[in-house]
Amino acid sequence: MGTLATVLAGRKIPTFSDRYRADAEGDIEDIDGVLKITRIRVAYTLSVPPGKADDAREALKTYITQCPAAMSVRGCIEIIDSAQISEFPA
């Protein structure tokens, strides 16, 4: 969440706790007798200022390559992210 918040801030999109949330879940599978995290899904809920939805979508396309945690496990654990973006009233 921190890396995405930083990228959003660069696009002048605030991430106050009442407007920015992430729900994460993962899959653990038995791989050759060893339990392994194979997949992590993160669903963001974001409420942005009017006219900023496209900027938020662009941030979501790029933030993961700047995320130390994601880059540490990329290739070992599949990371799937999605977002529900709405604009709050002016």
Please give the CATH class.
Alpha Beta
Average predicted confidence as pLDDT: 95
Structural class: alpha+beta
The coarse overall form would be elongated
What's the end-to-end separation, in Å? 25 Å
Main sheet: which strands, in order across?
Answer: 1-2-3
Count the beta strands.
3
H-E string: HEEHHE
Strand fraction band?
Answer: 35-45%
Oligomer: single chain
> CATH-wise, what's the superfamily?
K homology (KH) domain
Indicate the low-confidence ranges by residue numbers.
Answer: none
Output the number of helix runs: 3
The main β sheet shows up as: 3 strands, mixed
Tell me what the CATH architecture is. Answer: 2-Layer Sandwich
Estimate percent helicity. 25-40%
Report Rg.
15 Å
Task: Output the CATH topology.
Answer: GMP Synthetase, Chain A, domain 3
Number of domains: 1
Give short descriptive properties of this protein:
alpha+beta, GMP Synthetase, Chain A, domain 3, elongated
